[in-house]
Amino acid sequence: MKTISIAKGDGIGPEIMNATLAIIKASGAAVNFEEVQLGKEVYLSGNTSGITPEAWESIRRNKVLLKAPITTPQGGGYKSLNVTMRKTLGLYANVRPCASLHPYVTTKHPDMDVVIVRENEEDLYAGIEHQQTPDVVQCLKLISRPGCEKIIRYAFEYARYNNRKKVTCFSKDNIMKQTDGLFHKIYNEVAQEYPDIEKEHWIVDIGAAKVADSPEHFDVIVMPNLYGDIISDIAAQITGSVGMAGSANIGESVAMFEAIHGSAPDIAGQKIANPSGLLRGAIMMLNHIGENEAAQSIHNAWLLTLEQGIHTADIFKENISSRKVNTEEFAHAVIANM
Amino acid sequence: MKTISIAKGDGIGPEIMNATLAIIKASGAAVNFEEVQLGKEVYLSGNTSGITPEAWESIRRNKVLLKAPITTPQGGGYKSLNVTMRKTLGLYANVRPCASLHPYVTTKHPDMDVVIVRENEEDLYAGIEHQQTPDVVQCLKLISRPGCEKIIRYAFEYARYNNRKKVTCFSKDNIMKQTDGLFHKIYNEVAQEYPDIEKEHWIVDIGAAKVADSPEHFDVIVMPNLYGDIISDIAAQITGSVGMAGSANIGESVAMFEAIHGSAPDIAGQKIANPSGLLRGAIMMLNHIGENEAAQSIHNAWLLTLEQGIHTADIFKENISSRKVNTEEFAHAVIANM
Ligand SMILES: CC(C)[C@H](C(=O)O)[C@@H](O)C(=O)O
Ligand SMILES: CC(C)[C@H](C(=O)O)[C@@H](O)C(=O)O
């Protein structure tokens, strides 16, 4: 029995987490859950890190966290907990698969099947900002050789292990010759060790345009942190909804799994949220800990549910063979299909 | 008679510039052209700035430059001439209209009509990079209050003058609280002076996703330099082709007009390139200098050409009412329609 740390998050977090946990339990996966406290309540209790010492302790002990989206309170200089956790736990790789579910989910891009591999610790996310004069502020973009090597090697290993054919690199080294230049250079170096995998490079502006227009061109794409943030949202959204994509944050010792979307406070408490993003994070988690059978059976049941036209409001389209359900009904349908 | 400085550029530059100049001449606009030297040849002659003193002199005298895309040679630490010119001439506003031409140009987004107003001098484009240790490199993202005020006020003035209803701001101030935070804060301040124009803010990741998926949601969008680089390429591409969009770089005294695409060396010399991007830059230029009638008649003739199904290879689709033409034939068709 493996114990997983669980954070229920804020906004729609608890609703989608409860749905996800019910599905995991029904799958027969050999896992226990240990709930930890982090997010809005913790911030507002005066702990400006947003996470309790007990939560750190639990995550470090269990080495796996399933985390619902959280809300960072506005103002007061609260630091993003997502970023704190990625950095503190050394979660260097953020993996975001974005594949079309055509014809079950409406999309303009039926053939897309892209995996964004996003560097997750460096770049402008290093969090080094300061005020130079009253009128001028700066933020430091940091890129290191070991950071580049780790993420780029991860992307190629991921491609090889998952039978992917191509790893594309995005950077903007026509402008940032040293920082993005280093990322591109190390990509070229590492790629030589993987002659079986096709390599390709795009400047990030026109690369992003290609993703938005013809995502089926791409397979695995590796890129620095901020580009990965922007382009994974684009790729997820054009599969049909940003609410459908899960995300794995992988470190040497700990891994964190989540939905790629936010806590959507505007619809919180209405029980209409789509649990699919978090559920897909959970499926990635089950594979990560070796519960491959449970992962597969959840994935199949979830797909079957979509095939049956059972949809939450965000992706529901009025249609003779579709049924609009709430969060719990969706979870029950997945469980019934298992 | 107004004199315009002209740079023919590299790659497909001379082909599309000759087509564009022929069309301007045929429009009867009261303009003369003065050719200046900048780009690849100048770089390779040993002038690492890529631009001759005579070119600076001409541009400063004429105050208006129409520039074809150029190629910066790889390696050798050549600085981007685009960036040098934007900074040296104080071209703080980069305006990039991206509207669908449905049904004449195939697009998945028939109702889009977005104008990206991109800050054009600051951000990571300030060009301040250095190596901290052999393994760590840095780039400085710079944001200033005067820089933000100028571009945000420009966006609202543009909206008012062009009868636009909404100015949206994109930033990532959940992470970059000081730099992007300042941009967002000044947006809120300036927006108060324009109560007639709707305001709205998106975090750039999910904002980019919304542009890629539902661009018809947006009207004018104002944002820092690098986001503007990425998002204007996305917006242009999903109208049908990045080859269709023009760009105005506006300063207090000088303005530069160009296509948003690059010099496409792979198809250079074949005379198949689409001159539309540069032509639309030229139309913006004619409006800028008060040649509104010529601008309008070129625009109408160009639209009519597309309506007639006369297309260069990049946007041509096999179709009973379409004809594939080369660069010169396209220009002749526009002239014939004038
Ligand atoms: C919430 C935010 C800090 C986070 C990020 O910027 O990384 C989110 O957008 C994501 O992509 O996981
Ligand atoms: C060529 C390059 C320097 C330029 C930029 O990054 O601004 C281009 O992509 C653009 O958008 O005009």
TrEMBL record, chains A, B:
<protein>
    <recommendedName>
        <fullName>Isocitrate dehydrogenase [NADP]</fullName>
        <ecNumber>1.1.1.42</ecNumber>
    </recommendedName>
</protein>
<keyword id="KW-0521">NADP</keyword>
<dbReference type="GO" id="GO:0004449">
    <property type="term" value="F:isocitrate dehydrogenase (NAD+) activity"/>
</dbReference>
<comment type="similarity">
    <text>Belongs to the isocitrate and isopropylmalate dehydrogenases family.</text>
</comment>
<comment type="function">
    <text>Catalyzes the oxidative decarboxylation of isocitrate to 2-oxoglutarate and carbon dioxide with the concomitant reduction of NADP(+).</text>
</comment>
<dbReference type="GO" id="GO:0006099">
    <property type="term" value="P:tricarboxylic acid cycle"/>
</dbReference>
<keyword id="KW-0329">Glyoxylate bypass</keyword>
<dbReference type="GO" id="GO:0004450">
    <property type="term" value="F:isocitrate dehydrogenase (NADP+) activity"/>
</dbReference>
<dbReference type="GO" id="GO:0006102">
    <property type="term" value="P:isocitrate metabolic process"/>
</dbReference>
<comment type="subunit">
    <text>Homodimer.</text>
</comment>
<keyword id="KW-0464">Manganese</keyword>
<keyword id="KW-0560">Oxidoreductase</keyword>
<keyword id="KW-0816">Tricarboxylic acid cycle</keyword>
<feature type="domain" description="Isopropylmalate dehydrogenase-like">
    <location>
        <begin position="3"/>
        <end position="334"/>
    </location>
</feature>
<keyword id="KW-0460">Magnesium</keyword>
<dbReference type="GO" id="GO:0000287">
    <property type="term" value="F:magnesium ion binding"/>
</dbReference>
<dbReference type="GO" id="GO:0006097">
    <property type="term" value="P:glyoxylate cycle"/>
</dbReference>
<keyword id="KW-0479">Metal-binding</keyword>
<dbReference type="GO" id="GO:0051287">
    <property type="term" value="F:NAD binding"/>
</dbReference>
